[in-house]
C-alpha cells in the first residue's frame, strides 16, 4: 500500500520508499524525500517563482532519465503552475512554491533546474551564471582556478560572485544582477568567457565543441539564455551517489587541491547549513544586485 502523508494540509501519496536509487551508497527514495524535507528552508527560496524543469530518474540514475518541462500528468490541482512563453509556443510549467509542492515533486525523483528569471518577468534575468565544466584530465581543481579569476574579474565590474558545486564534475559561479534582458546578460557573460580564454592561456575554452575541451575548463555562458536552465542550489543530481549541487565558500575553492574535496553528498548538507547558513542567500536579496557594466 502506498503511504499517505499530510504536508502543510495537503495529502500526498509517497511511493516506493524502500527502492534503492543510488546504488553506490544504497540511498533510498525515502532518504531522497527526507533530504529534500531537511533542506527545504534553504532550497525553496531558490525555487520560488521560477518555472521548474525536472530531470526525472524514477529507477535511479542507471535507469531511464528524462527531462520534463511541461506539467507532468497527474499533477495535483493545488500545485501552482504558470504559462511560460517559448519560441515554439507557450507551455505550462510547475512552480514549486512551498513544502507540499516540493515533496510532491521529490516523490517523482527529480533534479530541479531553474532559469535565471522569475515568472513575473520571463526573459529578464536577475542573476548571471557561469558553468565551469572540466574536460579530462582537467578536474574541479582547474575549475577552482578559473572560478577565482572570474570572481576577481566580476568584482572589477562591481559584481559579487558566489559559487557552488555542480554536483557533477565542475562548479557554478553565480551573481545577482539588476534585472536585464537575458540576451544582454548572456552577451556580457560571453565577453567574460572569451576574456578568460585569452587571459588564462590554454587552460580555458569558451567553445562548446567537445574535441576542443580536452584538458581545459569550458566556461559555459549559454545558461544565461532565456530558454536555458541551471541545476538549482541544493538539488540532488542523477549520479551513482547522491551528490548535491552545494554552495561552497571561497576559502574552500582557493584551497581545493584534489577533486574529492568538493564532493558533497546528501548527508553533508544539513551540517553545512548549520555551520554556514545558506551561502547563496545574497542572490535572493535585491539589495545585493548590481548593474551590468
Order of helices and strands: EEEEHHEEEEHEEHEEHEEEEHH
| Overall radius of gyration | 19 Å
How would you state the average pLDDT, rounded?
A: 95
Widest beta sheet: strand line-up:
13-14-10-12-11-16
The count of helical stretches stands at 7
Describe, in plain words, how this protein is organized in 3D.
A hairpin with a 6-residue loop joins strand 7 and strand 8. The chain is an alpha+beta fold and 293 residues long. The chain is built from 7 helices and 16 strands. The strands form 5 sheets. The chain has a 6-stranded mixed β-sheet with strand order 13-14-10-12-11-16. The protein has a 4-stranded antiparallel β-sheet with strand order 6-5-9-15, with helices on one face. Strands 1-2 form a two-stranded antiparallel sheet.
Short description:
It is built from seven helices and 16 strands.
Characteristics of this structure?
293 residues, alpha+beta, 4-stranded antiparallel sheet, globular
Helix and strand topology:
Layout lengths: L3 E4 L2 E4 L6 E3 L4 E2 H10 L1 H8 L5 E4 L9 E3 L12 E4 L6 E4 L4 H9 L2 E5 L9 E11 L5 H17 L4 E5 L5 E11 H18 L4 E2 L11 E4 L9 E2 L15 E2 L1 H5 L11 H11 L17
Parallel strand pairs: 13-14
Antiparallel strand pairs: 1-2, 3-4, 5-6, 5-9, 7-8, 9-15, 10-12, 10-14, 11-12, 11-16
Helix pairs in contact: 1-3
Amino acid at each position: 500500500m502506498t503511504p499517505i502523508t499530510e504536508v502543510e494540509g495537503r495529502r500526498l501519496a509517497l511511493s516506493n520508499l524502500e527502492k534503492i536509487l543510488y546504488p553506490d551508497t544504497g540511498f533510498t527514495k525515502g532518504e531522497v524525500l527526507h533530504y529534500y524535507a531537511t533542506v527545504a528552508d534553504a532550497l525553496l527560496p531558490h525555487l520560488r517563482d521560477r518555472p521548474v524543469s525536472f530531470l526525472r530518474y524514477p529507477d535511479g540514475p542507471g535507469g531511464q532519465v528524462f527531462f520534463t518541462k511541461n506539467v507532468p500528468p497527474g499533477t495535483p490541482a493545488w500545485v501552482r503552475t504558470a504559462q511560460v512563453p517559448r519560441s515554439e509556443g507557450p507551455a505550462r510549467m510547475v512552480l514549486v512554491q512551498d513544502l507540499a509542492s516540493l515533496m510532491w515533486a521529490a516523490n517523482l525523483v527529480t533534479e530541479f533546474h531553474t532559469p535565471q528569471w522569475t515568472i513575473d518577468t520571463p526573459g529578464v534575468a536577475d542573476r548571471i551564471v557561469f558553468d565551469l565544466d572540466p574536460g579530462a584530465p582537467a578536474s574541479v581543481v582547474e575549475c577552482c582556478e578559473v572560478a577565482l579569476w572570474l570572481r576577481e574579474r566580476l568584482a572589477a565590474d562591481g559584481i559579487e560572485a558566489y559559487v557552488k558545486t555542480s554536483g557533477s564534475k565542475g562548479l557554478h559561479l553565480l551573481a545577482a544582477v539588476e534585472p536585464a534582458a537575458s540576451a544582454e546578460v548572456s552577451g556580457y557573460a560571453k565577453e567574460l568567457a572569451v576574456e578568460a580564454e585569452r587571459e588564462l592561456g590554454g587552460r580555458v575554452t569558451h567553445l562548446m565543441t567537445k574535441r576542443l575541451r580536452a584538458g581545459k575548463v569550458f566556461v559555459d555562458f549559454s545558461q544565461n539564455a532565456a530558454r536555458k536552465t541551471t541545476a538549482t542550489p541544493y538539488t540532488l543530481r542523477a549520479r551513482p551517489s547522491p551528490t548535491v549541487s552545494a554552495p561552497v565558500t571561497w576559502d574552500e575553492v582557493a584551497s581545493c587541491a584534489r577533486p574529492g574535496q568538493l564532493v558533497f553528498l546528501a548527508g553533508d548538507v544539513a551540517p553545512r547549513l548549520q555551520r554556514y547558513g545558506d551561502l547563496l542567500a545574497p542572490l535572493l536579496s535585491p539589495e545585493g544586485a548590481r548593474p551590468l557594466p
